[in-house]
Specification:
With about 325 residues, this protein is of the alpha+beta class. Helix content is about 40%, strand content about 25%. It has 11 helices and 11 strands. A hairpin with a 5-residue loop joins strand 1 and strand 2. Helix 4 runs parallel beside helix 7. The protein is elongated.
Length: about 325
């Protein structure tokens, strides 16, 4: 609707300052010509908006002009009160600020929408952490936040997975990302995008040097590149076929979700269901020991042999311990 688009333009100009017409057109998925017609409509209705031409030009509101949010629809009001990652606010030290902001938004909402927004905040809860994820290491995001918001470089001491000693890096941060309850620092190192888990940062020091980001590149752009690298990373892995006892299938699907290459076929009869998994290295199939005799590897033979070696190793360890105790 045109009225929604006019409000969106007004709020974008209020929060962003001068914005090029083509950027507004891209954000609102209309033509530049439509944007200029909308600007004329806003001006005719008394909004002090003007256009600056030239290389650094754009559309801008007269300095000091503000508007409120009374144009929110019922669905938009509900959306504001569904907190998609409540733990994120606490980690950033913004719990109190969030509560204050929501109270202000509630006061500014059109009266008919307030009950729906209030009910939404009591009836919808999103918990981003996984079931039984275990105790999480405390993460101190203060210095990382400072670097992100003050546009400064960072010196990190960072311990990679599988390594005992941390390494030292100087990085140019773009921002912080919370994914499935885990915080990541997204940064460039020597001009290349890198991902650092916040709970593996052993120390972080803010440098005096200003950040050196690639021109025109935003946090969302770098995150998309890094996300694809992780999800599409080619691996010389091993494909494994197993059979699972039907009564343990639900547990198996939860615990081995990351390795499943296809959902097990639950149709048919019998006590066993066939499933297929993929592991990055042969040794990783030892994960299946957690299922005891509820899961059996059918193929390949080297995966079965790896589990046999693991069982023999565990047996030898306990025999040795038993003898020493005696």
């Amino acid at each position: 609707m045109k009225s929604d688009r006019l409000l969106s333009i007004l709020l974008l100009l209020q929060t962003r300052g001068r914005v090029p017409a083509h950027e507004l057109a891209d954000r609102l998925e209309v033509s530049v010509r439509t944007i200029y017609r909308d600007i004329e409509a806003l001006s005719a209705s008394g909004v002090p908006v003007y256009t600056e031409r030239g290389r650094h030009g754009g559309i801008e509101l007269l300095a000091g002009f503000r508007t409120d949010v009374t144009g929110l629809t019922a669905d938009e009001s509900r959306a504001l009160f569904i907190l998609a990652a409540q733990g994120a606010h606490a980690a950033l030290g913004l719990d109190a600020a969030l509560g204050s902001a929501l109270r202000k938004v509630m006061a500014a909402l059109p009266a008919p929408h307030r009950p729906a927004a209030e009910v939404t905040s009591r009836r919808i809860l999103v918990d981003a952490t996984r079931w039984k994820s275990g105790p999480q290491q405390a993460v101190d995001l203060e210095v990382l936040q400072d670097a992100v918001f003050t546009d400064r470089r960072l010196k990190l001491r960072y311990r990679h997975s599988g390594e005992r000693e941390p390494r030292t890096y100087t990085v140019d941060p773009y921002g912080l990302v919370a994914k499935a309850g885990v915080w990541y620092l997204v940064a460039d190192r020597r001009g290349a995008p890198r991902l650092f888990r916040a709970d593996r940062v052993r120390s972080a020091r803010l440098l005096d040097d200003p950040v050196r980001r690639r021109p025109g590149v935003e946090l969302a752009d770098v995150w998309e590149v890094l996300r694809r690298q992780v999800e599409e990373r080619p691996e010389d892995g091993i494909d494994v076929t197993v059979r699972v006892r039907r009564e343990r299938l639900d547990m198996f699907r939860r615990m081995a979700a990351a390795q499943l290459t296809g959902l097990p076929d639950e149709d048919g009869e019998g006590d066993w269901v066939t499933a297929r998994l993929s592991y990055p290295v042969l040794r990783a199939v030892r994960q299946l020991l957690a299922f005891s005799d509820q899961v059996e590897i059918l193929d390949p033979p080297e995966a079965r042999a790896e589990l046999v070696r693991a069982v023999r190793s565990v047996t030898a360890l306990y025999r040795q311990t038993s003898h020493s105790d005696g």
